[in-house]
Specification:
This protein has 582 residues and is of the alpha/beta class. The chain folds into two domains: 291 residues, Nucleotidyltransferase, domain 5 (2-Layer Sandwich), CATH 3.30.420; 238 residues, ATPase, nucleotide binding domain (Nucleotidyltransferase, domain 5, 2-Layer Sandwich), CATH 3.30.420.40. It has 19 helices and 21 strands. The chain has a seven-stranded mixed sheet with strand order 15-16-14-13-19-20-21, with helices on both faces. It has a six-stranded mixed sheet with strand order 3-2-1-5-12-11. It has a two-stranded antiparallel sheet with strand order 4-7. It is globular. The N and C termini lie far apart (60 Å).
Amino acid sequence: MSGERYVVGVDFGTLSGRAVLVRVSDGAEVGAVTYEYPHGVIDRKLPTDNSNKNDRAGGGGSGGAGGGDGDGRELPPDWALQVPSDYIGVLKHAIPELITATKIDPADVIGIGTDFTASTDIPVLADGTPLCELPEYGNRPHAYAKLWKHHAAQPHADRINALARDRGEPWLGRYGGLISSEWEFAKGLQLLEEDPEAYHRMDRFAEAADWIIWQLTGNYVRNACTAGYKGIYQDGRYPDRDFLTTLNPDFGDFAGTKLKGTIASLGDKAGTLTERAARWTGLEPGIAVATGNVDAHVTAPAAQAVGPGQLLAIMGTSTCHVMSAPTLAEVPGMCGVVDGGIVAGLYGYEAGQSGVGDIFAWFADNFVPPNYHHDAERIGLTLHDHLTALAAAQPVGGHGLVALDWESGNRSVLVDHALSGVIVGMTLATRPEEVYRALIEATAFGTRKIVETFTASGIDVTEFVAAGGLLRNEFLMQVYADVLRMPVATCASEQAPALGSAIHAAVAAGAYPDVKTAGAAMGGRGDRVYQPDPAAADVYDRLYAEYETLHDYFGRAGKNGGENSGNDAMHRLNALRREALS
């Protein structure tokens, strides 16, 4: 045992889990290991093997279920599932490799913290066993974990929103007037109505953020972050039974039974590492395990962005925007406001964009001709870097394009995943790099819409801080600074969510009194701050005006000003697609 103490932070992302070993005294990241999920995102067909045979999850107290392999059946549109045993694989592989690679004595590790994408929900038995691991449920899509970007519950979200508006439910304003298809209640209602047998068989509809803590400690402890932002838990209660029964008579007990569990604050100790989890990870049993958290919110102390007015954008496949404020306000189209949702003593606000990096990847994977691939390989660049370099060489506005960033729907401020992408202005002379640039600009415009909505609601954004994998694209970051007309500061860590989880682990282990103090000691900012270019910003103002026109025309049809206030074509096309593929 050495004089230094360490904590482990694990970030469970969309495609992989990342574990970092962090020194408690100053937040230095000693090492990091990534484990790719073997099953990835299941969005086309069920796997024929739904578990790593040696990594079957089992429950908090069970030794694991028998086989429940899928049959490869096709999935309907807008589904996104995962296999829970992939998460256990992160514990069994990434953490032991991390300890081995860093040559740290496990006795020097005092705690572990985790974060997850949200809302990612797993139907489980009373002991935590996922339904998909039961032999009779392996071929049933609703038995799997529903990933955050599972948008097939949009019709159920629409019904929840309509009923809440009709009844004047007080909690609806806390979510900007709309709840999302990505959240617990919409996904739970979809499960009930499309596979009632599976719904009644499950004992809990567990957030993955809480389920992984269950696996580590044997304790089922719900975290205040996912409960508040994704589970409609406000002022100590869920929507009442009468509301839920009106949606569906069998849904009345959803909150009371399927979501039942102690709710703990962020930075609390959920329990200690069990003997079984210690064997998985190579860590010592009995060390502190922090309450679960959401990947975006846990990043705030890592980026030292926990003060009022500091908006943090975690930019990756999607972008989540979080900030804290001393006052409570209703912000249209936000993902929620929760007392202590980021740090104690302040209201935590959340907004987001469902597609950012995913949009760039979609375009590069599907619409770039072979000669661009060959040129990128010849000059030693990735295709994305090649497209970025070509895009950066263009003058602002030179492509004559404007796009809507809705290829994965709109999370904020419209909260409508039936919306879809648009590119306006293409001609026979339009080149791939020009479209690529327009898509980058569209995501920046989407962020500006969020920032302006916060400000118009009395929640001033005084500082913009960015974290996440897209920080490596310097051109993209400069576009954001120009579009926002604000400096864009950066988080120092390349593994900011995992570092944030490690910071919470240090608090849970008693090394720091609270998350703010721990973040001040262990978090950090990068050296680079992107300053806006006034000339570029002037042109972007004009492009943003066109974006706003399209945003409201396609996104607010029938919502403001009556039936003729826009065009509902996207919803009609979405309905036609669902009908054709059903």
